[in-house]
Amino acid sequence: MSALALNAEALYLELLRGARSLCTAHTRLVGITSGGAWLAERLQRDLALPGESGQVSSVMHRDDFAQRGLSAGGQTHLPFEVDGADILVLDDVLYTGRTIRAVLNEIFDYGRPARVQLAVLVDRGGRQLPVQADFAAARVALPETQSLALARDSAGAFSFEVKNKA
Question: Is 132 helix (H, G, I), strand (E, B) or coil?
Answer without folding.
Answer: coil
